[in-house]
Amino acid sequence: MTKDVFTLTSPDGKTMELPIRTGTAGPDVIEIGHLYAEQGVFTYDPGFVSTGSCDSEITFIDGKEGVLMYRGYPVEQLAKQSSFIEVAYLLLYGELPTASELEEFETSITRHTMLNEGMLRFFTGFRYDAHPMAVVSAVVGSMSAYYHDTMDVNNEQAREVFTHRIIAKLPTIAAAAHKLTAGQPFIYPRNDLSYAENFLRMVFAVPAEEYEIDPVAAEALDLLFILHADHEQNCSTSTVRMAGSSGANPYSAIAAGISALWGPAHGGANEAVLRMLKEIGDAKNIPKFVAKAKDRDDPFRLMGFGHRVYKNFDPRATIIREMCHKVLQKMGRTDSPLFELALELEQVALKDNYFIEKNLYPNVDFYSGIIYRALGIPTSMFTVMFAIGRTVGWVAHWREMITDPHGRISRPRQLYSGPAKRDYVPVSDR
């Protein structure tokens, strides 16, 4: 390996020079685009865990050091000093907005929050007990039938309208999905409220009385949206890029991302935390379940601890832990058996040598699940909350992908392991 090329030698002694590309941070990558043409082989990388699928300027992660940056800004700084709408602007356009740019952007998002009335009637076609993620995915996919004026992905103005529209309407769709399950009337958005405040009102308000928005709840929700906004080339983001690479309408690409996020190994992790806490049941049972978690032969797993990317600590968890305790104190939930259990389990994880040695620290899913529960958000809505925040990241990546002059349709290859060629046998001879 030289400074700028990687030399590959085949079993028959044929050599090939593969260019090395260096980004602004993170490991270098080896270009293998001509590998099949010159060597007649593909690379094999299940899950694409060692493959750079694109060139992106949006988000950087260093799992060893616990670094997460949006457009170069550490997420810790954004979480403490910024707002979700400002972070959304940053992810979409690459730079922090001026005061006038922020005001214009926030106004546009606010005024796109209402849904076409036909879409609201669309909700009545779902069963009352449908999972909210199923409803949200379906409704977002159907948006192309209601807002087909923004279907031309090559039109800059159409992309801009789509961007503002989907970010603005996701909370409205999500709240309507909840109201469907609750059997309550849909609550329309209000233009005098912030992004998080609007969502809280649409979820919890009823026509019979005025709804008073708790500022701590709105602050917590805004913070969670920031922390969920983007996470590089994960499963759902890659799904959005792959679906969008065909030139498909952007609503279908986002709907595909929502469906991918719904998986329990991805966005469903905070929902799994609550199920685990219910299984443990009481703080006095913690030692028994910790012992089960340590037993390799026991199928029980502690959810919400450690992270497959962040090997030492999750920078988002450090931020959200403080907010979690603040919410529990404000909501008067610290004496609830469930939250007492959660806080006791947190302390065990922070002090137990087994957890410390294996870096099984409480992660963002652990704390976000507790916060959502404390705010009164049903467990079935947890992944929906994730989707609201992550939509901004998905759209940013879709925009980057669709405007990439070197972009092409995604087409992974495979190692075929099925039957070799065989001849058809008529059914009468089988």
Features:
Citrate Synthase, domain 1, mainly alpha, single chain, 2 domains, 3-stranded antiparallel beta sheet, Rubrerythrin, domain 2, globular, about 425 residues
Describe this structure in words.
With 430 residues, the chain is mainly alpha-helical. The protein folds into 2 domains: 5-52, Rubrerythrin, domain 2 (Single Sheet); 53-406, Orthogonal Bundle (Citrate Synthase, domain 1), CATH 1.10.580.10. The protein is 50% helix and 6% strand. A 3-stranded antiparallel beta sheet has the order 1-2-3. Strands 4-5-6 form a 3-stranded antiparallel beta sheet. It is globular, with a radius of gyration of 24 Å.
Which second-level CATH architecture of the largest domain applies?
Orthogonal Bundle
Provide the structure class: mainly alpha
Q: Using DSSP, what is the number of strands? A: 6
> What name goes with the CATH superfamily of the largest domain?
Citrate Synthase, domain 1
Helical stretch tally: 18
Under CATH, the topology of the largest domain can be stated as Citrate Synthase, domain 1
- Helix percent reads 40-55%
Any idea how many domains?
A: 2
Summarize the helix and strand pattern as letters: EEEHEEEHHHHHHHHHHHHHHHHH
What is the gist of this entry?
By secondary structure, the protein is mostly helical.
Secondary structure topology:
Blueprint (H helix, E strand, L loop, with lengths): L4 E5 L5 E7 L7 E2 L4 H5 L19 E4 L4 E4 L2 E2 H7 L2 H10 L5 H12 L6 H6 L9 H15 L9 H27 L12 H10 L10 H14 L6 H10 L5 H12 L7 H12 L5 H9 L20 H16 L6 H15 L1 H5 L6 H11 L7 H21 L28
Antiparallel strand pairs: 1-2, 2-3, 4-5, 5-6
